[in-house]
Description:
CATH architecture: 3-Layer(aba) Sandwich
Number of strands: 4
Number of domains: 1
Distance between the termini: 11 Å
Largest sheet: 4 strands, mixed
Amino acid sequence: xxxxxxxxxxxxxxxxxxxxxxxxxxxxxxxxxxxxxxxxxxxxxxxxxxxxxxxxxxxxxxxxxxxxxxxxxxxxxxxxxxxxxxxxxxxxxxxxxxxxxxxxxxxxxxxxxxxx
Length: 116
């Protein structure tokens, strides 16, 4: 099974999801999104595939979130996506994409629904 994980090695949820994939014999494409952020088009597609609003992918506890005032209602979906592409630290993680679906795997065990 092909899988892609948008991964942050410093995140325990991300490490957990990656370990669960590997324990089940799946070697995913690992995208360290802090080094290689997705394009606007790719991130828009991931958000649509997850069936969530862009705001749901934002890390509201990230200091930059408050600095940029991203809690304000004036931000459009397109603007929020642009901010996540420009500042990938604002993205929640890990996002895992498989033929069975795409989801934000917080906690990491949620990845099991995508590979069962």
